[in-house]
């Protein structure tokens, strides 16, 4: 088990692959942990250094009480990469992980040479929407919203045909520490990255799921269009977590991007 002491929190991560390889970082979504990327990592090209971590409040990373800010989550990622001696990585983030990616690229361009923005946006939802979600969870726990969340996460066919696997994702969601889930909801609620993302000038790939109920393809494309020269890829038949529903296709899209920018 690999744990980084960042001072205010202790962050769980995995550093895999070739330690001398070019680095690719994976950042998970709200309500998941670094296992989100298991299927993709197993299909990635050899020779890469692959680092993934549990976002603050998720998995085995500390889950302090109180609202989190996007700056906290960006700083967590920056401190981890600094401790690991990583520069010029490709940073891939899904949903809140994609917001962290955008913030990190804006604040620490020395750390990030390219972005993969998966099922994310510069701004997701409204403060009122997030407040209503947080109020419901404080009253009934994450289980109060699990069905609606899983419906947004996964396509109808996944929910119907892969019920055993779905049960594992349900458990992961519902076992997310309550302070961590609420803290990250608060961070998303207050985040608007339109201006800073529009100033980015680095290779960017955006990936969307055609059946995503959280960050629909048009919203993902709108964010990609903020970065000149960005690429957009749609994975059909997948919801908010295409890296779970179609890991081989997802990894192939990512590997193609890495090859295009000379990162393999």
Number of β-strand runs: 8
Report the C-alpha radius of gyration, rounded: 17 Å
CATH architecture: 3-Layer(aba) Sandwich
The level 1 CATH classification is Alpha Beta
Number of helices, counting only DSSP H or I runs of 4 residues or more = 12
Q: Could you give a short description of this structure?
A:
The chain is of the alpha/beta class and 264 residues long. Helices cover 43% and strands 17% of the residues.
Describe the protein's architecture and organization:
This protein is α/β, with parallel strands linked by helices and 264 residues long. The protein has one domain (2-260): Alpha/Beta hydrolase fold, catalytic domain (Rossmann fold). The protein is built from twelve helices and eight strands. It has helices spanning 38-41, 70-84, 96-107, 127-140, 146-153, 156-161, 163-174, 178-189, 194-198, 217-224, 242-245, 247-260; strands spanning 2-5, 10-17, 23-27, 49-53, 89-94, 112-118, 204-209, 231-235. Helix 2 crosses helix 3 and helix 4 runs antiparallel to helix 8. The radius of gyration is 17 Å and the shape is globular.
Give the key terms:
alpha/beta; Rossmann fold; eight-stranded mixed beta sheet; 8 strands; globular
Topology:
Blueprint: E1 2-5, E2 10-17, E3 23-27, H1 38-41, E4 49-53, H2 70-84, E5 89-94, H3 96-107, E6 112-118, H4 127-140, H5 146-153, H6 156-161, H7 163-174, H8 178-189, H9 194-198, E7 204-209, H10 217-224, E8 231-235, H11 242-245, H12 247-260
Parallel strand pairs: 3-4, 3-5, 5-6, 6-7, 7-8
Antiparallel strand pairs: 1-2, 2-4
Helix pairs in contact: 2-3, 4-8
